[in-house]
Structure of Molybdopterin adenylyltransferase:
Amino acid sequence: MEAILRVGVVTVSDRASRGDYDDISGPAIEAWLTRALTSPFEVATRLVPDEFERIGEAIVELCDERGCQLVLTTGGTGPAVRDVTPEATLAVADREMPGFGERMRQISLKYVPTAILSRQVGALRGRSLIVNLPGSPRSIAEILDELFEAIPYCIELMDGPIVETDPEVVVAFRPKKKKG
Ligand SMILES: Nc1ncnc2c1ncn2[C@@H]1O[C@H](COP(=O)(O)OP(=O)(O)OP(=O)(O)O)[C@@H](O)[C@H]1O
Ligand SMILES: Nc1nc2c(c(=O)[nH]1)N[C@H]1C(S)=C(S)[C@@H](COP(=O)(O)O)O[C@H]1N2
């Protein structure tokens, strides 16, 4: 079993990738991980425009070459014509994890009625979990504060590292093993 968690962070934004504005959402993911994780981790970041091929290439590189057990994307999940992050994610995935999309929209509905506009998905590529977060910077902590409860166990089930969290931020849920 590996000791260190490698996390890929992919910001999908036409304007941030052009330099029209600074990427806030990618750094917000990194800041959240720094706050929440007490076990060792490293982050590799990528910034790509809302383009199907570029998104897929970034995810594949992070999973297959960098060995990221977790890839978090931000942006491009809505109904705008150029929003293709969920399609690009599923195109490079082996299996969808429908519970992730369901859970994220459930969480986000507590904050904004437009939560239903995000088509965000969770999916697996090999032993990597890929999760789409919305582009809005504040959505990052809104979602991860609750969603992350289920992520350490998912990574463990794929023979990844044991991920420990600060319970002040989020408690990692692990089903109790039966005795004997
Ligand atoms: N990476 C980011 N950093 C900072 N703010 C962002 C980022 N992504 C999105 N936002 C903000 O959230 C809003 C909604 O995000 P959305 O992903 O719909 O952007 P968009 O309108 O498709 O534009 P773009 O793809 O050029 O970021 C944006 O208008 C922007 O204000
Ligand atoms: N938690 C949370 N979820 C959210 C939002 C938000 O502000 N907070 N914004 C919503 C809005 S307004 C949109 S359009 C969709 C898609 O956003 P994206 O295209 O930036 O990925 O995410 C939704 N989900």
Q: What stands out?
A: The pocket of adenosine-5'-triphosphate (ligand 1) is lined by residues 11, 13-16, 21, 23-25, 50, 75-76, 78, 80, 135-137 (CB under 6 Å). The first strand starts at residue 5 and ends at 12. The mean pLDDT is 97.
